[in-house]
């Protein structure tokens, strides 16, 4: 409005000059003002049609608390005609913070591209994103402002994988005892005859579906007949020492602590896996990353591979969150969930869908909702909730 008033004032002065002082001089000034407005408007309209935006990050993967740069690239696809004034507003996910301002104004020469760097710093594990929130186009005179339609840049997203740490928490006797209290199977029973319930709250598994190459003598014909599919017994060592985990990350409910809670939960699960590896236990870890995935964790190399995988996780699509058993054909007895007390509905849904034990963080604020719940604090100490 201020610029518009200034422009109209200039027009009024030119008219007064034309009428009262010098007709030809005033006319020249009016022509110049009109030409300036036409050029300014034309540049604005052309830029609206031909501007292209992109984001390029200086790194695709990073550790926590490291700085990186996001370059916002603007391309003026019209040769010889410079763009109007382009104002770009960017935003980043909650696990990334801005070190320099996220918005800027610039002009792009005709047929050229221009990049502006924004400094960022990684905060929490998982997939970090930088995206364009808004693009405003201003004419040269500052009279007219147009908003570029979001469809032109909504898919422009820079992604950074932020690796979680693997905490060294030493040996936690209570946790290891609860985790390993899955008794071996009984050869004479169709299913496990365990009488000890550990962290899972359910007996440990001692059978699985038959796979090509399994010895026929290990087929449990009685159980196979009952389930109408071939089942083989696992080795006693595997049965007693294996544990299955499920990482649950519901949709972000807007809680300002959500990203930190996800980070804590991911690292808590890695801490438990690390403890189990040190004690000689094998584990199976299930998580969602463009589909449900399952990874066997037998040694430190597997844990490092999982660490890299979890650098790319983000909140699960709601329709996929409970598709766990359908996509990989099994259930996991221990669930590490990033649910928050501010969205107890997410946890209630989990209780209905999941039969097993639950691990929540102190940061989540969730109180004991059922039996077999464990709490992990910021130093990754686990204790059973009572």
Describe the protein's architecture and organization.
This protein is elongated. With 386 residues, the chain is α/β, with parallel strands linked by helices. It is built from 9 helices and 19 strands. Strand 18 and strand 19 (382-384) form a beta hairpin. The protein folds into 3 domains: 2-48; 50-162, Immunoglobulins (Immunoglobulin-like), CATH 2.60.40; 173-384, no CATH class.
Strand content: 25-35%
* Uncertain stretches: 182-198, 200-205, 236-241
Which class best fits the helix and strand makeup? alpha/beta
First-last Cα distance: 64 Å
Secondary structure: number of strands: 19
What strand order characterises the main sheet? Answer: 15-14-13-16-17-18-19
- Rg (CA only): 31 Å
Order of SSEs, N→C? HHEEEEEEEEEEHEHEHEHEEHHEHEEE
Helical content (DSSP H or I, runs of 4+): 25-40%
Question: Given the C-alpha coordinates, what overall shape results?
Answer: elongated
Number of helices: 9
Can you summarize the main beta sheet? 7 strands, mixed
Q: What's the overall average pLDDT, rounded?
A: 84
Tally of structural domains? 3
């Amino acid at each position: 409005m201020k610029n518009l008033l200034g422009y109209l004032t200039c027009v009024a002065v030119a008219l007064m000059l034309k009428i009262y002082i010098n007709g030809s001089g005033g006319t020249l000034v009016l022509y110049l003002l009109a030409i300036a407005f036409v050029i300014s408007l034309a540049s604005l309209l052309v830029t609206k049609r031909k501007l292209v935006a992109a984001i390029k990050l200086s790194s695709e993967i990073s550790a926590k608390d490291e700085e990186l740069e996001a370059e916002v690239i603007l391309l003026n696809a019209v040769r010889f005609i410079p763009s109007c004034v382009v104002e770009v507003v960017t935003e980043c996910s909650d696990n990334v913070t801005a070190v320099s301002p996220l918005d800027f104004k610039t002009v792009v020469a005709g047929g050229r591209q221009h990049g502006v760097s924004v400094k960022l710093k990684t905060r929490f594990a998982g997939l970090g994103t930088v995206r364009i929130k808004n693009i405003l186009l201003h004419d040269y005179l500052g009279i007219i402002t147009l908003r570029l339609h979001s469809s032109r840049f909504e898919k422009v997203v820079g992604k950074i994988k932020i690796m979680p740490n693997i905490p060294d928490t030493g040996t936690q006797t209570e946790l290891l005892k609860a985790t390993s209290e899955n008794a071996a199977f009984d050869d004479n029973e169709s299913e496990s005859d365990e009488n000890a319930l550990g962290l899972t709250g359910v007996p440990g598994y001692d059978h699985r579906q038959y796979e090509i190459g399994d010895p026929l003598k290990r087929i449990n014909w009685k159980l196979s007949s009952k389930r109408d599919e071939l089942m083989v017994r696992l080795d006693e060592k595997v049965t007693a020492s294996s544990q299955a985990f499920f990482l649950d990350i519901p949709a972000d409910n807007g809680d300002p602590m959500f990203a930190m809670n996800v980070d804590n939960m991911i690292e808590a699960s890695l801490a438990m896996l690390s403890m189990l590896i040190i004690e000689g236990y094998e584990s199976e870890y299930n998580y969602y990353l463009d589909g449900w995935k399952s990874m066997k964790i037998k040694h430190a190399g597997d844990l490092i591979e999982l660490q890299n995988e979890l650098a790319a996780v983000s909140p699960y699509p709601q329709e996929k969150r409970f598709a766990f058993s359908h996509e990989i054909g099994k259930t996991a007895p221990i669930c590490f969930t990033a649910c928050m007390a501010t969205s107890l509905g997410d946890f209630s849904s989990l209780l209905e869908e999941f039969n097993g034990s639950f691990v929540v963080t102190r940061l989540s604020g969730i109180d004991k909702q059922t039996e077999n719940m464990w709490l992990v604090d910021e130093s990754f100490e686990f204790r059973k909730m009572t």
